[in-house]
Amino acid sequence: MKRICQLLFLSLLVAGCSSKPEVKYVFYFIGDGMGVNEVIGTNLYNEANGLGTVNFTQFPVLNFITTVSANSLVTDSSAAGTALASGVKINNSVVGVDPDGNPVSNLTEWAHAAGFGTGVATSVGVNHATPASFVAHTDKRSSYEEISNQMIASPVDFMAGSTFLTDRGSGHDAALFEQKADSAGIAVYKGAEAIRGLDLTKERVVCLSGKAEDSLPYAIDRKEDDTQLSDFTEAGIRYLESRYGKKGFFFMVEGGKVDYAGHANDAATCFQEVNDLAKSVDLALAFLKRYPKETLILITADHETGGLMLGSGRYEMHPDLLSGQHASVDAVTEKFREAFFPEDKPFKAPTWDAVKAFFAENLGLWGVAEVSERMEQQLKEVYDRTFGKGGDRNLSESNLYSENYRLVAEMVRSVDRIAGYQWSFGSHSGSPVGLYVIGACAEEFNTVKDNTEIAPLIARLAGYAK
Ligand SMILES: [Zn+2]
């Protein structure tokens, strides 16, 4: 109720906008892979499981945008990230360079040139496609070290992410780039506690998770001492406000792992990632409450991932049946390995009943989520292919970001289907995505139709030097 009142209050703040730039503080949130069904699906899941409504779905401006890239009707994150950052269509897997090979300038460059503070934060690698699109220019998104070098050499004031990703096979690790940042005069903070104590007088700042991980843990798997996206968001706001409170700032925050959960076809994990992004949006809403006439908050996505459908063939959905899942497909794979492949004992194939009991405990299958005879037969077939005579006990499947036991992945897809969520595939779709806007000049975004139209409009409203 409190939150609804707060949002009602905020919805009154869609001030009109004159031709003179009025926006001082811009928050640009990007849910990677966060299609419309991922967002609506999260609200259905939340409602059924006693969680609150996703805050940005109640924003006064709600629009839809197309996402095609220059060379494909289905975009990847770097082409879409560049469209969102620069307003230019480029080819998939390229960062900040147009199809003719020319670098395209972006929002952090325009904001900086006009004297504003700038920040980028993400729950994945600090140099992953989306943050890279707001800072770097390279013809390959996988050129992580080149991107890191460009980010370190850039004027961006605040950067945050799990770690510096390095090139495959280079033999380098993140420490090399932490040193490079340090030599360039950038203060590096690692871990939530260090980040909370960041020195606001530092010229430039990089915040990392402090753990050897390519991305922050999924929200559904999070342990108490894990760094989370809202730690980065909170620190970024505090830092940028303290240094650029007078002039204003631009801050991009990416929820990078909605996409990971989509690639892995894992609905509960995906929805918790959407909720986790909303938690960072809450921090921006608190800022908006303090500066209602000068703050603009946008939430959008680069593309949809997984072809998630609401409904799985019957005229019904039961999002409450996901309530038995308390860990991601990756974490359940780990538990499955520990349970059935103990390192200190010779391998012995588990019985079907033991496997069923495991998934009852970890996903709620054969528990809160009843399994039909037909579905059980299909799952038993995967069990037989894994543990039966002549089976492959390591039978697995890979998605873009992880590898899981086939049996675990099928069980997760099954509980999704029982709850009424059906995945189409493990890659991106060309579906449109939502654009949710609140604050100063929000209504200007009512007419936006494509992902290239957002960046120039922000630049105009905030008076950036484009
Ligand atoms: Zn993706």
**CATH architectural name of the largest domain:** 3-Layer(aba) Sandwich
- CATH level-1 class of the largest domain: Alpha Beta
Overall helicity: 25-40%
Spatial arrangement of strands, main beta sheet? 2-15-8-1-7-3-4-6-5
Structural class determined from secondary elements:
alpha/beta
- How many domain modules? 2
CATH homologous group name of the largest domain: Alkaline Phosphatase, subunit A
Strand content: 5-15%
Gyration radius, in Å: 22 Å
Major sheet: size, sense and barrel closure? Answer: 9 strands, mixed
What does this structure look like?
The protein has 466 residues and is of the alpha/beta class. The protein folds into 2 domains: 2-308 and 432-462, Alkaline Phosphatase, subunit A; 315-422. 38% of the residues lie in helices and 14% in strands. The protein is built from 16 helices and 15 strands. The chain has helices at residues 2-11, 36-48, 77-86, 107-113, 129-133, 144-153, 174-183, 192-196, 229-244, 257-263, 267-290, 329-340, 352-363, 373-387, 406-419, 454-462, and strands spanning 25-31, 61-65, 117-122, 158-160, 186-190, 204-208, 249-255, 295-301, 304-305, 309-310, 396-398, 403-405, 421-422, 428-429, 433-439. The strands form 4 sheets. A 9-stranded mixed sheet has the order 2-15-8-1-7-3-4-6-5, sandwiched between helices. Strands 9-14 form a two-stranded antiparallel sheet. Strand 11 and strand 12 (403-405) form a beta hairpin. Zinc ion binds next to helix 10.
